[in-house]
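Typical record is below.
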Amino acid sequence: MGKHMSDILDNENILAQKDPEGALKVAAEQFKQAAYDAVIVHPDHDGRQITGVVVTGMGGSALAALVAKAWLKNDLAIPFEIIRGYDLPKYVGSNTLVIASSYSGNTEETVSALAQAQAAGAQLGVIASGGKLVTIANEQNISHVSLPTGLQPRMGVIYNLRALLALLENFSLIHGKSDEVAQLSQWLGTESAAWAPEIPTDNNYAKQLAEDAVGKTPVFYGGALTSPVAYKWKISFNENAKNVAFWNEYPEFNHNEFLGWTSHPVEKPFAVFDLVSSFEHPQILRRFEISDRLLSGQRPKSTVVNLVGDSLIGQLLWGSILADYVSIYVATLNGVDPTPVELIEKLKKEL
């Protein structure tokens, strides 16, 4: 099958035809998002003490917060929780910073959570490209970042991260982190250029991984630091490739799912990917390897994706952009358009 697949993935006419809205072009420009200057509208605030942060958002809009949480775990001295739903926890009060994040600005769960944050007297921040959230933020002088419009939310994760860091810096909870991301932009551009459509499969890691995944249900595994990237790969496969996919993380995997692989059938229709960071806890790195060895013959051998980069955030963003490339190539092989998410739009209308 390999040759036949590379005939498709190395044919730029087929790629263009299957990708009419230019998802590959969006992926190719993602590195620029790292240098995005997230300007805060209404930055002034009353300087009250913040004892906890809650980011409320769904799907791709929650993803940047998950990346930030993994990256900033040694920088933030206060609890940082991500809520993906309608309701905020009871502890939210005047000393909680609640950041409502929705790319469209109209996500109903996030609009609901923002109203609860207002009722609780929380300190507020908003990240959106428009919609109800930006309207509310402007009317009520809430600190917010207006993201560039016109992207699928899952493709705007790095914009969202820049906006989130800007707000956390604005409320003096972290310092200098936006600059660290900005400095990665050029490097991410160079790295991701190697995954572009004009680079043939023989030299194109993203196309090779797409060939490993196509026709199967991929399962993505991360560690404590890379679990947001595993989740990002799942989302990208769901939305770009219209492909069911699952994710989990180590060490939790070894306490349950590990055994789930051991029963029949031996020929399981899955593709297993381990997303590994050199910054991960050494015991977690051993768990990846030992687990794969102990499951030999009972589950497909894992494909190890070693995240590249000199810093954890560099590796997380490298892995995030790669996820989009791989899943868009799988979309092509699946014969689907990577951009629209019609069923999600339909659901929103029905609701």
In short: The mean pLDDT is 95. DSSP finds 16 helices and nine strands in the chain. Residues 101 and 127 are 5 Å apart (CA to CA). The chain has two domains: 2-28+185-334, 35-181.
